[in-house]
Specification:
Number of strands: 0
Structural class: mainly alpha
Largest sheet: none
Distance between the termini: 20 Å
């Protein structure tokens, strides 16, 4: 895939997926962000940290699909190469974790139970999607490289430090 197409596709997918899941839906659940913020400052501080940390993970993870994988995160325009560098050397699902961090942060900022429940539902949906669709698809597409990666890098709880063995970064 040409770099311009990968960039354009990734930007479109960013708006369509995380933009809706972590932006549009929470916007609606908080009355277009007009809901009063939490009355405890610690919730606002922790929530802001989670939102910013999520965004700080999400943007470079999308960029890695373009630069390393030569494709997009969108299932309709997958990467040519398995993406294993950067944050993907510590956890296999940094994008999903980043989106959940943004939603959880907003739930704290607004002290919103509906957003917290939505975050839990989104997490369950993401785990199911990864388990039943994404992992089998990646195993078919990338074969032994993906199986090695899957064995050496945790799926959901990031490992601190370098990855053991596996494919080159």
């Amino acid at each position: 895939m040409r770099r311009f197409s990968a960039v354009a596709g990734s930007i479109a997918f960013f708006a369509a997926a995380p933009g809706v899941v972590a932006g549009l839906v929470p916007w609606g659940l908080t009355d277009r962000y007009r809901q009063p913020v939490a009355d405890r400052p610690i919730f606002i501080v922790l929530g802001t940290i989670l939102v910013l940390a999520g965004l700080a993970v999400l943007v470079p993870a999308f960029a890695r699909f373009v630069l390393e994988g030569r494709g997009t995160p969108a299932p309709v325009a997958p990467t040519e190469k398995l993406v294993v560098g950067g944050l993907y050397g510590h956890v296999r699902n940094p994008m999903y974790l980043a989106v959940l961090s943004v939603i959880a942060g907003q739930a704290l900022i607004f002290a919103s139970w509906p957003l917290a429940l939505y975050c839990a539902a989104a997490a369950a949906a993401m785990v199911a999607f990864v388990r039943f669709h994404e992992e089998p698809t990646l195993a078919r597409r990338y074969g032994a490289d993906y199986e090695t990666y899957r064995r050496t890098v945790p799926g959901w709880l990031p490992r601190i430090g370098r990855r053991r063995g596996g494919t080159a970064q």
